[in-house]
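name: query_chain
kind: protein
chains: 1
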Amino acid sequence: QVHLVESGGGSVQAGGSLRLSCAASELTSSRICVAWFRQAPGKEREVVTSTDSGGVTSYADSVKGRFTISQENAKNTLYLQMNSLKPEDTAMYYCAARSWGACSIWPGDYQYWGQGTQVTVSS
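structure:
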């Protein structure tokens, strides 16, 4: 069982930055994939970025060059650095983990979820 807790959301103006954190009960090499998803009102949950235990990382086209996923295993913490934020980045952001299988873009493939943290970007 992996318990995830996100923090760091907030309200910023377009062009600003935020860093989200996801504290995990454990974030060892036994986990296969960790990811950030987001869900805007009236829209489906979508993957933002993911990284697997081999360090392979992927990003949604909409955030490439602006967002960076990283982790600090000593603190069991996953981060999402978000720069050059746009109003369309406004959403609830979730961290997720799956303990088997490759990284996936499908939310249903992830067994563990945090409660989410709200990001609001104003123009």
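note: The mean pLDDT is 93.
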